[in-house]
Every structure is written in structure tokens, then in C-alpha cells.
Specification:
The complex is a heterotrimer of chains A (about 375), B (about 140) and C (about 375).
Chain A: E1 23-28, H1 44-53, H2 91-100, E2 104-109, H3 122-141, E3 147-152, H4 158-168, E4 174-179, H5 193-202, E5 206-209, H6 227-247, H7 250-253, E6 259-262, H8 269-283, H9 294-301, E7 302-305, H10 315-325, E8 330-331, H11 344-351, H12 355-370
Parallel strand pairs in A: 1-2, 2-3, 3-4, 4-5, 5-6, 6-7, 7-8
Helix pairs in contact in A: 3-4, 4-5
Chain B: E1 5-10, E2 19-24, E3 27-34, E4 37-42, E5 56-63, E6 69-79, E7 86-88, E8 105-112, H1 113-116, E9 121-122, E10 133-138
Parallel strand pairs in B: 1-9
Antiparallel strand pairs in B: 1-10, 2-3, 3-4, 4-8, 5-6, 6-7, 8-10
Chain C: E1 24-29, H1 44-52, H2 88-99, E2 103-107, H3 118-137, E3 143-148, H4 154-164, E4 170-178, H5 189-197, E5 202-208, H6 223-243, H7 246-249, E6 255-258, H8 265-279, H9 290-297, E7 298-301, H10 313-321, E8 327-328, H11 351-364
Parallel strand pairs in C: 1-2, 2-3, 3-4, 4-5, 5-6, 6-7, 7-8
Helix pairs in contact in C: 3-4, 4-5
Classes of the chains: A alpha/beta (about 375), B mainly beta (about 140), C alpha/beta (about 375).
Chain lengths: ~375, ~140, ~375
């Protein structure tokens, strides 16, 4: 018999609004094809360490988070490659299911693998960061030039971080520096400023992808019970991150620094800008180092990615929100292969904007920020 | 408009508790076998068009009060493989937004191959054998 | 305890004020001037403890409510000495007689509730409530108050609610946005059960017990960061209250968010509804979209209202929430969020203003239903 079963990757490629437009995807998660794949990129000393002790984090469970996700590997159920690799762990499958199917012209890798920046053993964190960076180049960028690597580093020890940035930054296959929003102190604090100084000097954006493990609960009143709450704390986390960056004066100190918030959503940003402006005006004697309204620093220095797309009941509210943020600061992202993936045609259909503005969001803004062809 | 009937699978192709993507009249259709009963839904989730065939088949979680969990109608819902929206396999209605978000449910039936050879059925992609039983969808 | 039952207010001769009396101010602040002021309300054991340990000389100001910060008191409402909100005459002359609300709900944010000793915290809260009744409620019939409860022991908090519930001038229970555990957690439910029994909403005020940093990244350098982060704390409260099923368990209970900033809520609910559609099986008692539950059960006091001046966000808030019943008028006296008398960002004669000033507070606080309606005429 020959029942015609379509492969998942053959699903609809472009909605009406997209008209076959190629996209830049600012959030793609590569995964190790096997747990041991990273070992070959680590020095022997740290291979032994990992085999003997594993990672060492500020949380109760050694190998996983304490809020189990709603899907295995927090992945789309259809993203498990037939090769047996985990979702995101098989380039050929990723190409077929995502890069080719969705007409991705450039994809920014967001390696979350094992969180080098959140390792308590700082030397291991640094070695792991180097390994993950080398692995991105060898296993991904070299095999598919559409993909662009992100420099991961251990932000809790500035000399290690700077050494890694200096090692990788001249290599144009790296497009940005990636830090975890959940650091030991809010990222705007001065202990992290040397990293921002280096980013500015190398003209590399800093990407902040939601997540990280710093030992603090994700809310000001402790640990929520449920994943439905914990998933949402990506929002409060990003709000706090911007608040810290702006009020601590990072953008006053580094006027050319550019930051990309990845997977935090967008709709919360306008009310946060209103709040920051209003209360800074009243309390500015505490933060006199700020010379401009907080919202102006955000407007100039921060880029946002679309996924997970905010879904107000009225589509026009989404556009209003995006316009309040600035359409030139919004970049398309999918979060492939994760469960809350956004399809390009869906985003295009929700936005309901003209072709020029749509092109800017789906690809142009990212091309300009990252200097892509 | 009169409906066409399409032969889409042998009954044995879709084991109880599983689904199969079929194509009939140019449409992608998710065919489910729920304890021997066949149901056919449009394969595209109305949200972002994930393929329902790739979704997990589950029961429905209920609670009369916090902490009192109960699973009912096991095997009668499919979760979209992407964002987890739940669809009632019997009706195509999404649980979270039944008015606005539903997938089309098609009438299904089972017919013996010996009848199909004679009847007004369209078997687009495979040959029908008189010895087998087939799932038929009306579109 | 003798309780005044005079509900037909304002009293004759009192100024009708800006809104013609048909207004409830759902958040004004009163302040314990010093621990010493509580000594008359302590029993022999505790009084001696406080005196011999020098506790009466401690300040118990809260980190989340610094008394001298400009935001804490507008200059014309700041007393010449002592904490803002500690002087009755300023509240009366500069505020109540100007705005002329039929009722104003006094919230006493006090560090005593944050003590680690559960017993001492409870004793202080009891003393504060006695002090509120004697020193404030007895002095002006327009005043109402929130019941101050210990925040680290729900059973003792429930006892305090039972002790106070007979006095109708206490109209809600006071909690803080950021405590030891998220507000929806079952550990708090004895408080909600007691409040529910007596028709008392839970008022959640900006503030933190600092059991955890207000920012998920840890402790920042500036009070301004933490103040801004109060809104994130409230956002977490929404997630927790709905996800834990507080409103499934207590369907008649209402929560009032005070000094939350308000305008962050619609976007938070777009996201919450979206997530719920995919993961609701984890919390199957949440049977309708979270936004609907919030619309039915959560209210927000007006000031501070986070928007660029004149941006029209209050109307947009009501449109986006599909409800004009969620916002309750407040001035947040003596805090400095607006100039002059511009507490209401819309015309006072608009239908929405009437809802916010009068209908919504009365619909939220069962104990304000007895307010005289003819005042509004």
C-alpha cells in the first residue's frame, strides 16, 4: 500500500503575509548529539571531573531543574530526530525540519548546554565555555554557514570571561556574547562591567537568553509551585534585568553597548518603560548618574526577540505594543526545537503590517544588528 | 455540495491509541483509532499549524478543587506537538478555546474491501483488496 | 471594645471635597511613629521584654518603605518630624478634608510584621491593630483600616483576623506583595479562609519581607530598582494566586493590589492566558482563562498609575481588561505620585470615574456597602 504520509517538515512554509520571505532566526538551540559529545572538546582534567562529579549548581537536583517541563526535553513533540539524537542534536534533521522548511537565511545559535556561566566550579565553567564555543564552530557553523555562534563565558570570574571573549571575538563566525540573565548578582552591577567593556570594544552585542541558575528564586516571594508559573518568570526575570542594566548606569557607561533579550517576550516592555520613567523622576537623587530617561536607554540599547509571541485577544494590541517598543528593535525568533516554537507565517499573520516593516522584523533588523549579509 | 468518500487506510494501519496522517482530497487529515473507533480531524492545529498527528494522545485532566487531580476520557484527546493545546478527538474542539479554535472533524466509517470495490469511493493512493477492512472518510 | 457603628458619613459639617463625597480612597497610609507608641497595647510580659531589651528604641522601618525617600511623602504632606503618615492632623486637613472621601482605607505598613519570631510578630500586629482603632478610627468616622497580620505564621494571622473581624471599621486583611512564599501557596490558606468567613478582601500592598531579592538576579544597588520591581512582585502574585487555585478554593474572595502600578497587568495576562492554553493540565482546577479569573477576583488601587502623563492608559486598561470594575480610586497618601489634587487621570465627571471612585470600591469591600448613597447625589 502507499498511503501518502507527509513528513512534518513539509508543512506549510509561508503564510500569506510572508510571501516566501527568508528569515533570520535569533534563537536556535543546538544540543549535543550524545551526552558525551562535548567531552572531546574538554581537556582531560575536566573530562575526569565531569565523569566523577558532574556539574555543580546552586539547586537541589543535580541533573535537572526542579520544575519538570510539560514536554520531554522541553521540545516540540515532532522535533525528535530519527537518528536517535535529542531535539536540536542532529543538524541534518534541523536543516530539513527548520532551516530549509522555514527559509531561515541566518540562525543565531543559543547554546544553553550545561550553563557554563552558572557552574559553581569557576575553572570548570571556563573550560566548559571554551568547549561549548569550539563545539558550536566544529559541529554547527562549519557544517552549515547559515548558523552563527554565540560566545558563552563564565561571567562570575571576569578574567576567565575576558580571556574567552578575546579568544573568540576575532572569529567572525561568532556574532555575539551570550550571558545568562540569572547571574550571581543583577547583571547591571559593576562586577560585570569589564565584560560589557569588552563587548563594546569588539562591537559584539550581548545576548541574554532567559534562564540560568543562580540559587535565587525567580520571584521576589520565593519559589512558585508550578511550571505554569515558573515559565512565566522569564518575564519578571527580563524586567529585572532591564531595570538593573538601566538604573545601575550600564548604558551611561557604555554608550555603544547593544543588548538582545531572547525569549522574554515583549509586551511587558512598554509598561516597564512607563514605570521606570515615572519613578526615576521622583527618585533621581538616588541615581543621579542617569542623564536621560530610563526609557531612552532602553530605546537605544535593547533589542527584543519575538518568541514566545505575545498573544493579546486583539491583534492590534500586539502591533501597538511593538510600536511602543520600536519596530526597529524587534527581531524574529523561533526557539527551535522547543515546545513554544513560533512559526514564521504565524508571526507575520499576527502582526498585520506592511511588507517593509515585516521584512525588518523577520530579517532586516537582525541583519543590521549583527552585520549579516 | 455533495460529499465524497475517501478510502484512506486499512483498519490495521492505525492501532488503537495511535494516529496516522492521511491525505484525502488534497487535505492533510489526522486519523485516530480510539479503542477501535476511528476519528478524523484536520491535521493542522488552528493556532500555529502544528501537525496533530505528531501530538501525544492523552486523557483529560480535571479537578474539582486544588490538588485533587483526576484523569478522565483517557485516549480521547490529542495535544498539539508544539504548544500543547488539547483537542477532543471526537469533536475537534479545542478545550481551551472551544468556540474560536477547533479543527474540522470528518465523518469516518469502516467498510469491507469487497464493498469498496463496487461503491462510490475514491481510493486515491492505494489499491483496495477485497480481503481487508478500510477506514473511509467523508469530505 | 466599643465600636462606633456610624456608617452615614461624612459627618454633618464635614467638607464634601473634590468628588462630592461619592468616593472611597482605597489606599492611604498611616504610620506607627515608634515602637514606643505600641507599649500601651502590650501585655505585661511583652512590655517588659520591649523595655528591658531596648526594643522600644528600635525603628522597624521597612527597607521597602524608606520614610525619608521623596516618593514616600509629598513635601506638603510630610510632618515636620516623625514618619510620614504618623500625624493625624495632616491626614485630616491636607487630605480627607480636601478630597472628601466617604471612606478612606488606612494601611499601616509596619516592620513588626516582618519579625522572625512568630509570636513577637503576632503580638506586635495585635498591638498595631488596637493602636489603629484607638488612635485613628476613633478620631474620624471616614477612616477604615486593614487588619495587620503576622506574615510568617498563617494560623496566628487567622487568629488576629478572628479577633478583629467584629469591628466593622476593619474592612480587609493586609499582606505584602513579596514574602517568604508566593501568595497562592497553601501555607497562606488559613488567612484566606478566615478572611473569607468574614467577608474581608485580602489587600496586598507593595512591600517585601526581603526573604528573597526583588530581582531574580539578586540584590541591586538602588532602592529605585526594588521599587520598580514591586510590579514584578505583583505579577508573580497573579500567577501564584490563580495557579494555586486560591479562587477555586475561595470563590467569593477578592484580592486588592495596592500600589502596584496597574498598567503592567494586561500584558501579563496575555502571556498567562497563552501559557495556560498549553499547560493547563498541570493545574486542572484553573478551568477558564486566567484573565477571566483575574477580572472576577483581583482589584487594583489607582495610584501610582504608571503611564506617561496624559497617555490615556486608564481607558485602555479597561478596554484591554474588558472591565471597568477592576480599578479602585486611591491617592496613596502621603506618597508623592501626583501634584496638587490630580489623583484621577480622567475627568471626575466621566462614567468611568464614578465607577472607580464609588461603585468599584463598594463592590469590592462588603463592609463599605453601608456607606450612605445619598452623599453621592
Amino acid at each position: 500500500m502507499s498511503i501518502d504520509v507527509l513528513e512534518p517538515q513539509e508543512r506549510r512554509k509561508s503564510g500569506g503575509a510572508l510571501q516566501g520571505l527568508g528569515v533570520v532566526d535569533c534563537d536556535i538551540h543546538p544540543q549535543f548529539s550524545t551526552p558525551g559529545e562535548i567531552l572531546e572538546f574538554l581537556p582531560e582534567r575536566w573530562r575526569d571531573y565531569v565523569r566523577t562529579y558532574g556539574g555543580f549548581y546552586r539547586q537541589p537536583l543535580a541533573d535537572t531543574l526542579s520544575h519538570p517541563r510539560m514536554a520531554p526535553d522541553v521540545a516540540r513533540a515532532d522535533s525528535w530526530p530519527p537518528s536517535g539524537a535529542p531535539p536540536g542534536g542532529d543538524l541534518a534533521f534541523m536543516q530539513k525540519q527548520h532551516l530549509d522548511a522555514n527559509n531561515v537565511e541566518h540562525g543565531m545559535l543559543m547554546p544553553l548546554n550545561r550553563g557554563p556561566g552558572n557552574q559553581r566550579n569557576l575553572e570548570y565553567g571556563a573550560a566548559l565555555a571554551t568547549a561549548v564555543n569550539d563545539w558550536q564552530i566544529a559541529c554547527w557553523v562549519e557544517r552549515d554557514p547559515r548558523l552563527h555562534a554565540s560566545i558563552v563565558c563564565t561571567q562570575e570570574h571576569t578574567p576567565f570571561a575576558l580571556a574567552e571573549i578575546e579568544r573568540c571575538a576575532p572569529d567572525k563566525r561568532f556574532s555575539q556574547i551570550m550571558l545568562p540573565p540569572k547571574s550571581l548578582e543583577p547583571l547591571g552591577r559593576r562586577r560585570y562591567w569589564p565584560i560589557f567593556e569588552a563587548a563594546q570594544a569588539f562591537n559584539l552585542p550581548i545576548a541574554l537568553h532567559v534562564g540560568g541558575i543562580n540559587g535565587y528564586p525567580p520571584t521576589g516571594s520565593g519559589w512558585p509551585s508550578y511550571y505554569i508559573e515558573e515559565q512565566h518568570t522569564n518575564v519578571q526575570g527580563m524586567q529585572g534585568l532591564i531595570t538593573s542594566m538601566v538604573i545601575e548606569g550600564v548604558f551611561e557607561q557604555f554608550p555603544k553597548l547593544r543588548m538582545v533579550l531572547v525569549e522574554g517576550g515583549i509586551a511587558w516592555a512598554p509598561p516597564l518603560k512607563w514605570r521606570l520613567d515615572k519613578h526615576w523622576k521622583r527618585l533621581k537623587s538616588e541615581a543621579p548618574h542617569l542623564k536621560r530617561l530610563p526609557s531612552e536607554y532602553i530605546r537605544d540599547h535593547i533589542w527584543f526577540t519575538t518568541q514566545p509571541l505575545d498573544e493579546p485577544p486583539e491583534d492590534s494590541d500586539l502591533l501597538e505594543t511593538f510600536e511602543q517598543v520600536g519596530l526597529d528593535r524587534i527581531m524574529f525568533s523561533t526557539d527551535y526545537p522547543h515546545w513554544d516554537f513560533d512559526e514564521p507565517s504565524f508571526v507575520a499573520a499576527k502582526l498585520r503590517i506592511g511588507p517593509e516593516k515585516l521584512r525588518a522584523i523577520m530579517s532586516g533588523n537582525a541583519r543590521e544588528l549583527y552585520g549579516l549579509s | 455540495m455533495s460529499k465524497s468518500r475517501f478510502v484512506v487506510a486499512k483498519t490495521g494501519d492505525v492501532a488503537p491509541g495511535t494516529s496516522l496522517r492521511v491525505n484525502a482530497g488534497g487535505r492533510d487529515i489526522a486519523l485516530f483509532n480510539v479503542s477501535g473507533e476511528f476519528f478524523a480531524l484536520g491535521d493542522r492545529c488552528p493556532h500555529e499549524s502544528g501537525s496533530l498527528c505528531a501530538g501525544k494522545i492523552v486523557g483529560f485532566a480535571e479537578a474539582d478543587e486544588p490538588g485533587k487531580y483526576r484523569l478522565v476520557r483517557d485516549g480521547e484527546f490529542v495535544r498539539c506537538p508544539w504548544h500543547g493545546w488539547e483537542f477532543d478527538i471526537r469533536t475537534g474542539k479545542s478545550w481551551c478555546d472551544p468556540e474560536k479554535s477547533r479543527v474540522r472533524a470528518y465523518q469516518t466509517g469502516v467498510a469491507a474491501g469487497s464493498d469498496l470495490v463496487e461503491g462510490p469511493y475514491v481510493a486515491e493512493t492505494f489499491k483496495v483488496s477485497v480481503e481487508e477492512n478500510y477506514v473511509v472518510i467523508e469530505i | 471594645m466599643q465600636v462606633r457603628m456610624d456608617h452615614t458619613i461624612p459627618a454633618k459639617g464635614a467638607a464634601v471635597g473634590l468628588f462630592g463625597g461619592a468616593a472611597v480612597d482605597s489606599d492611604v497610609h498611616i504610620s506607627v511613629p515608634s515602637v514606643k507608641a505600641l507599649l500601651p497595647y502590650l501585655n505585661q510580659y511583652w512590655r517588659q521584654q520591649f523595655l528591658t531589651r531596648g526594643i522600644d528604641r528600635l525603628s522597624w522601618n521597612m527597607t521597602s518603605d524608606p520614610p525619608n525617600a521623596p516618593i514616600t511623602a509629598r513635601p506638603d504632606r510630610r510632618p515636620t518630624s516623625g514618619r510620614p503618615g504618623s500625624d493625624f492632623s495632616i491626614l485630616k486637613e491636607k487630605h480627607l478634608d480636601v478630597f472628601g472621601p466617604s471612606a478612606a482605607i488606612a494601611n499601616c505598613i509596619y516592620g513588626g510584621a516582618a519579625l522572625h519570631s512568630e509570636d513577637m510578630a503576632a503580638v506586635v500586629c495585635t498591638a498595631v491593630n488596637d493602636w489603629i482603632a484607638a488612635e485613628w478610627l476613633d478620631r474620624d468616622p471616614r477612616l477604615r483600616a486593614s487588619i495587620v497580620v503576622p506574615l510568617n505564621n498563617a494560623d496566628l494571622a487567622a487568629e488576629e483576623i478572628e479577633r478583629r473581624a467584629g469591628d466593622p471599621r476593619f474592612v480587609q486583611v493586609l499582606m505584602l506583595a513579596m514574602g517568604e512564599q508566593p501568595l497562592g501557596k497553601r501555607a497562606h490558606w488559613p488567612i484566606y479562609a478566615a478572611a473569607n468567613r468574614h467577608g474581608l478582601p485580602i489587600g496586598v500592598h507593595a512591600g517585601s519581607l526581603y526573604q528573597h531579592p526583588a530581582l531574580a538576579g539578586g540584590y541591586g544597588s538602588y532602592f529605585l530598582e526594588d521599587y520598580v520591581a514591586q510590579a514584578f512582585g505583583f505579577e508573580s502574585c497573579v500567577l501564584s494566586l490563580v495557579s494555586e487555585g486560591v479562587f477555586a478554593k475561595f470563590p467569593d474572595l477578592k484580592f486588592v493590589f495596592m500600589e502596584s502600578g496597574v498598567t503592567w497587568l494586561p500584558a501579563a495576562l496575555w502571556r498567562f492566558d497563552k501559557t495556560w492554553r498549553g499547560v493547563r493540565a498541570e493545574v486542572p482546577w484553573v478551568k477558564v482563562p486566567p484573565s477571566q479569573i483575574v477580572r472576577d477576583h483581583i482589584r487594583l488601587t489607582l495610584q501610582p498609575f504608571d503611564e506617561p502623563e496624559g497617555a490615556g492608559r486608564l481607558e485602555r486598561f479597561c478596554e484591554q481588561m474588558k472591565s471597568d470594575e477592576m480599578v479602585l480610586f486611591s491617592t496613596d497618601f502621603p506618597h508623592w505620585h501626583f501634584e496638587g489634587e490630580a489623583a484621577l487621570p480622567i475627568s471626575a465627571s466621566s462614567p468611568l470615574a464614578r465607577k472607580i471612585l464609588w461603585d468599584n470600591p463598594r463592590g469590592t469591600y462588603p463592609r463599605l456597602n453601608a456607606l450612605s448613597p445619598e452623599i453621592a447625589a
